[in-house]
Specification:
The complex is a heterodimer. Chain A is built from 8 helices and no strands. Chain A is mostly helical. Chain A starts with 8 loop residues before the first helix and ends in a 22-residue tail after the last helix. In chain A, about 35% of the residues are buried. Chain B is mainly alpha-helical. Chain B starts with 5 loop residues before the first helix and ends with a helix. In chain B, about 25% of the residues are buried. The chains are: A mainly alpha, B mainly alpha. Chains A and B meet through helix 2, helix 3, helix 4, helix 5 and helix 6 of A and helix 1, helix 2, helix 3, helix 4 and helix 8 of B.
């Protein structure tokens, strides 16, 4: 995973120190000190949980993904080159396992084949974001949140992975391609397709009173941490 | 004026550098494209507000406590792990299936030109039926032993399940292969049972060698909740029947598989 843009020198120094200490912990673990792995688990669990939660959409699955990712990392630590960044490597293992898990769930869901709740009739305007913090609005937001979760669930596992890694985690397109085992142009296309699908599903609920009215006309959005 | 495509706008929003300056310049002068970008931005901003549940500073420690008992003494040495004897059991099973299918394919090719094409699939299927049947039998044994293990009333506080755990670990690789094959062949019913079985095997394989009675009880409940033993028995029985019939009658046709999937 890439570091976010605008890192201060202090932060970069801290990250570099963390990487060095990761490498040391990996070496010690490989030398037979099982407890050295604890440092890596404690340091990277939060980050892996965030990724796993966004990919799977629920806490229970996310926790299982985190645990399984570390178990797999430990079992395959010999394959991890000390030149690489342990956080990135573990992150990739977690993303791959989360994809497997999402696919398994999809198979199960297809078996149960319950009709999608997206089909429920609801007036999009009821869910439109508004500035007033009324009880109605709060209820509306929780409904909107439900719609967003549903829209994310409708993405294929590759699309969801691509979206989470790119949009939320700011990963480079090469990293996404590596996780998806595709070319960079295919990964780029998957990112686009995911945004397009989310847009189709959610625009009726957020578009009417767009959240960007405050943005100055023509103001270019800041590029994300890494370039596509 | 030619407007920007949705793909260009999404790429721009998500940080793509290709033609970034040209797109920015276009946006300053084109209200339609700016509005379009704002609509994309509105959706993405709304998604940014989706919360991720907080995990406290103790989370890393909690993860360690959960996984530590499951970690082998030594970390994996990459390809060297494949030299472990137990790996060879699963690899042997897989190789046997592949060779069996290959030989079956070669053998049926030598038959008369008039031999129906179905017989190639028939022999291949027979090989798989035998292999999956055996696999289900072995899995059933492991699950039976766990499901019937008695919880100690007194005495040791830990129960050793290392034997079952190792067997489950060996069965996992083969299970994955059979599940994928069943999925590819469109046999959803078998794939579904193997999928359920994989989860339970994974649970057992990832358990520590010694578990508390509470953990054993939760494993037993999980086995019971999935009804996995029953499913494995039913499919195992069905495969045995199929093995008998394929020895004397033509292989199940696609329509038969479809019927089973429906059921």
């Amino acid at each position: 995973m890439s570091e976010s843009a605008g890192s201060t020198p202090d932060r970069e120094a801290l990250q570099s120190a963390a990487r060095e200490s990761d490498a040391l912990a990996v070496e010690r673990t490989l030398a037979g000190e099982r407890d050295a792995f604890r440092v890596l688990v404690e340091r990277h669990s939060q980050q892996l949980f965030r990724l796993a939660y966004r990919m799977t959409g629920n806490e229970h699955d996310a926790e299982e993904v985190v645990q399984e990712a570390f178990l797999r990392a430990y079992r395959n630590l010999g394959q991890f080159g000390s030149r690489a960044n342990f956080g990135t490597w573990a992150y990739r293992i977690a993303a791959n396992y989360a994809i497997d898990r999402m696919r398994q769930k999809r198979t199960e869901d297809a078996r149960r084949s319950t009709p999608s709740s997206l089909a429920e009739e609801q007036d999009p305007l009821d869910l439109v974001a508004d500035d007033r913090p009324t009880p109605d609005r709060l209820a509306g937001n929780s409904e909107l949140r439900k719609k967003m979760e549903e829209a994310l669930k409708e993405l294929s596992s590759s699309e969801r992975t691509a979206f989470v890694m790119r949009h939320w985690e700011g990963c480079a397109i090469e990293e996404i391609a590596a996780v998806l085992e595709s070319t960079t142009s295919a990964a780029k296309n998957t990112v686009f397709r995911s945004v397009q699908k989310l847009r189709r599903a959610l625009e009726p609920y957020v578009g009417a009173r767009g959240a960007l009215q405050a943005k100055a006309a023509g103001a270019a959005p800041e590029p994300r941490g890494t370039e596509l | 004026m030619k407007h920007l495509t949705e793909e260009e706008l999404v790429g721009y929003r998500e940080g793509e550098i290709t033609q970034r300056e040209a797109i920015a310049e276009h946006l300053t002068s084109c209200t339609a494209c700016r509005t379009e970008l704002e609509r994309i931005e509105a959706v993405l901003s709304a998604l940014d507000n989706l919360p991720v549940p907080e995990r406290g500073p103790e989370y890393g420690r909690a993860v360690w406590q959960k996984i530590a008992p499951q970690l082998p003494e030594k970390a994996g040495r990459g390809w060297r792990a494949w030299l472990e004897p137990r790996r060879w059991v699963a690899i042997g099973a897989m190789v046997a299936v592949v060779i069996g299918a290959f030989v079956a394919g070669r053998w049926t090719k030598k038959l008369d030109a008039g031999t129906p094409a179905a017989s190639v699939a028939q022999v291949k299927e027979r090989v798989l039926v035998v292999a999956v049947g055996e696999h289900l039998g072995k899995s059933e044994m492991v699950l039976m032993e766990l499901a019937n293990a008695t919880l100690p009333v007194s005495g040791p506080k830990q129960i050793n399940i290392s034997a079952e755990q190792k067997r489950a670990e060996d069965l996992l690789d083969a299970n994955r292969l059979y599940r994928e094959t069943a999925q590819q062949d469109g046999d959803a019913a078998l794939a579904s049972v193997l999928d359920d079985l994989e989860r339970v095997l994974m649970d057992v394989a990832h358990s520590p060698e010694e578990i508390t009675p509470a953990k054993l009880e939760s494993l037993q409940k999980r086995i019971e909740a999935h009804g996995i033993l029953f499913k494995v028995r039913v499919v195992g029985k069905e495969l045995q029947e199929k093995q008998k019939t394929t020895n004397s009658a033509p292989a199940a046709t696609d329509s038969k598989v479809r019927e089973r999937n429906k059921a």
